[in-house]
Amino acid sequence: MESGSSASGDGDCEAQPTIKINVKFGARSIPILISPDSTIKDLKSLLQPLTNVLPRGQKLISKGKLLVDEMTIRASEVTNGSKIMLMASQGLHQGDGPVLKQVQSRPVSRAGNANKLSNEKKRVDHDKLRLERWEKAGIIALSECNLKAIPDEVWASKRARILDLNNNDIEEVSPPIGFFVLKLFLNANKITDGSIRWEGIASMKDLTVLSLNQNHLTTLPAALGELTSLKQLHVANNKLTDLPNEIGLLRQLEVLKVNSNRISKIPASIGDCSALIEVDLTANFLSELPDTCGNLHNLKSLHLGNNGLKSLPSTLFKMCLQLSTLDLHNTEITMDLLRQFEGWESFDERRRLKHQKQLDFHVMDSADFDEGADKN
Question: What is the domain class of 19-88 according to CATH?
């Protein structure tokens, strides 16, 4: 745990906020935001929709060492800014591998009507084949394609489970009512409050992951509460000033990441999100948290660093009996204050035990890896 004031004997248990790593895949460099406590297997799952390479076909290498699925990012000595190489095994791609074409480009021949008709037929056939590939794989992978608009054929897909439009120049998002997708990634685009059609997003009743990091949003609408199947909401690095009260309707929400915004107040309805496991509110303008945070009985990880907090809800340690990671880096909350909270001793034991397990696992797994390397 990290605190704004130092306390002897506790600094080595400090948690870290989300870090950014760069994954080298062929000629591409894929930026990934991930918690240091996530596993390498979690990282591979994040890379699957971005590369079309199945996790079992991914080999991740850092500093010449093969990264092991069960190890955490932290235990693998991967830190903020680290570079990792991804090597893909043949035959373990979904669809036809990474989709890299700038799909909005449509060359038109001027050689006469015959050539025009021929090119038009080729374009139609190309679009049809691409749509069939998307339907078969269930993944529409259009990240880093320099898109300024979402191709119409994306919305024509009927079986897509994952739609990845990360790292483009997309300004307008207007999905039709009833469009089906389970995971929607729109990170690092140019989306503003007025350029996203929220009624279309809200109609995605089966949506489990919505990721809008690194855009230009200043608010989230009440319609967000209609996404009752949502399990992960990522809206970090925007310009949000608050969260809607309707966020409390997201009863299945497990991960909420709204770090690096301008949020000054969290609605009391957050306490109704009873499934929350991880909450990241790092780098906002918070001076307090609502007492209802004590209702988050499944909460394991809470990141509050770089805020103006001076205290925490009095029932946090008493009621959140699974909490083991608490980041208070660069706040005004002191260890002396925390020790006065009811339930502090139990929380302190949980976070020390977690840290020790990570250390033990790191030592054991490193030894196994070295032995395997010697055999080669």
Answer: alpha beta
Distance between CA atoms of residues 52 and 355, nearest Å: 34
Q: How far apart are CA 76 and CA 85, in angstroms?
A: 14
Question: Residue for token digits 């897909």?
Answer: 157
pLDDT surpassing 50 at residue 99: no
- The CATH superfamily label for domain 271-365 reads Ribonuclease Inhibitor (3.80.10.10)
Show the CA angle centred on residue 131, arms to residues 130 and 133, nearest 5°. Answer: 65
- Residues with Cβ within 8 Å of residue 113, at least 6 apart in sequence: none
> If you compute the radius of gyration of the chain from its CA atoms, what whole number of angstroms results?
23
Domain boundaries, the chain: 19-88, 127-239, 271-365
- Can you name the CATH fold of 127-239? 3.80.10
Record the pTM.
Answer: 0.64
Question: Exposed, middle or buried: residue 235 (CB in 10 Å: 0-12, 13-18, 19+)?
Answer: buried
- Please state the three-class secondary structure of 7-52 as a single string: CCCCHHHCCCCCEEEEEEECCEEEEEEECCCCEHHHHHHHHHHHHC
Contacts of 250 (CB under 8 A, 6+ apart): 224, 225, 227, 228, 230, 233, 273
Residue with tokens 């935001």: 33
What one-letter code names the amino acid at 323? L
Residue 196, both tokens: 């996203």
Question: Residue 325 belongs to what H/E stretch?
Answer: strand 325-327
What is the tens place of the pLDDT at every residue in 249-292? 999 999 999 999 999 999 999 999 999 999 999 999 999 999 99
Q: Fold identical between 127-239 and 271-365? A: yes
